[in-house]
Amino acid sequence: MSEKPAPPRGGGFDISRAWTDERARGVIFQILMVLGVAGFAAFIVLNTITNLEEAGLSSGYGFLFDTANFDINQRLLDYASTSTYGQAFVIGALNTVLVAVMGVIAATVIGFLAGVLRLSNNFLVSSIVTVWVEFTRNVPVLLQIIFWWLIMLALPRVNDSLSLGDAAFLNNRGIFLPAPIFEDGSAIVLAMILVGVVAALLIRRWARKRQDATGQTFPVGWVGLGLIVGLPVIVYFALGQPLDFDLPEKKRFNLKGGFNITPELVALWLALSTYTGAFISENVRGGILSVSKGQTEAAGALGLRRGLTMRKIILPQALRVIIPPMTSQYLNLTKNSSLAVAIGYQDIVSIGDTILNQSGQALEVISLYMVFYLVLSLLTSAFMNWYNKRIALVER
Question: What CATH code is assigned to 85-148+261-391?
């Protein structure tokens, strides 16, 4: 009898054929890699939990509801030693955000000024800025933080404080400024500031469309300044001055009243701002040099002033080169703020270290650090990417 032919293979999964197929083999390798990483991570987690239990340490984040039993001298919200660890973490996070925002603003201003001045035709100005940039960029930021902190501690004592009209004082305990006292109607004054900002932005958009259509310019700067400053001032006096100030007063051993900006915050802010600003200045200089020199020559031929040429022609084109690396500098500034622990500024790392020493929850505290800085960096990157797309040149 003749043998029957074998039925054709089809309809089922052939492992040998999948292994010889390059695409299928790649998928199999990726699945195995994911399973291997997941298994390794599970092993680490389970082993850590077991070791913690053997050492008598409980895992989890329940400790955040325990009483902190320590004070925080620099805070933006109400806090007492009877508050919880979770509230202490919030205070530390806000302190970090505060110095990061202040540092980003100051570093941007310093960076743009230094970047433009380094390209100045004045040899003396250009040389001074060049020396400052090279010195600041090549000295570790930690040393600069300690340097500015020592400068703050070398200021006069409280009794010999430097004063500005007996309203603001500077001494080795920091800067003392008038504290606002909000009374009935003060919310309306603050709302007028927001209304003025929105109105100024709308007028700016209208003026730009009007200039594109007719070529006529409009004094947007002066009008915007009048709205942002003048409108709240008018409402302030119209409502009977509902906003008062608590002025600091010099006492025998200290200053009473107002609010205090600690030397640690000032030192950290100055160090991070100047250090990051030096790097941003190089980004700005590179962005300006990337714009064709013919743009400047054409503007000069039209009779435009150098300042107007830089503001209206050069910088708008240079921003597409400046923004991407400047985003990295903002992220570096935010992460470098964790060096505040060296001078005792109570940011999230400094406060977290205190919590770690008291509670013994090392992994949980470190994980909170990582999540916080990750979220802050992602938000910064998202905003800068949005702004970069917004200012990108649109080709026709």
Answer: 1.10.3720.10
